[in-house]
Design a protein that fits this description.
This protein is mainly beta. It has a domain of about 80 residues: Immunoglobulins (Immunoglobulin-like, Sandwich), CATH 2.60.40. Helix content is about 0%, strand content about 40%. The radius of gyration is 24 Å and the shape is elongated.
Length: about 130
């Protein structure tokens, strides 16, 4: 963008198909961008955070007000493939304690939601001291 005269420069920024900003003074212009809250965030819910001995707990990941999402799951901050999940990975059964989170994905190229808040799952002790 080194060619042309200063009067040849015009900057336009569009948001959602509408002119958001227009600038036409000179070729040296800096625009500070800031993050917006437009990106959805996944929500992780658990009926309980205690896994009973020999049992499991179902975790559910969701994205509010939108259909068609698939879900990725994380255990102890690492991507994790879970057995016993539904087709979209929305519900999973967990048998072990750890820090769990999820995020929504869809489209091609893939669009990701923000990752959910962590849920800490704990296992009940296999043995308890009976005195």
């Amino acid at each position: 963008m080194n060619e042309g005269k200063d009067t040849d420069w015009e900057y336009k920024i569009n948001k959602d198909g509408q002119d958001f900003f227009s600038y036409r003074i000179n070729k040296d212009f800096k625009l500070k961008m800031r993050s917006t809250a437009d990106k959805p965030r996944a929500t992780l819910t658990a009926g309980t955070t205690i896994i009973p001995v020999g049992g499991s707990v179902t975790l559910t990941c969701s994205v509010q007000s939108s259909d068609g999402w698939k879900y990725e799951w994380f255990r102890n901050l690492m991507t994790y493939e879970f057995p016993n999940r539904d087709q979209q990975n929305r519900d999973i059964r967990v048998y072990h304690g750890g820090i769990y989170s999820c995020r929504g994905t869809r489209g091609n190229p893939i669009y990701y939601t923000d990752i959910s808040d962590d849920v800490i799952m704990k296992e009940t002790p296999k043995f308890s001291n009976l005195v």
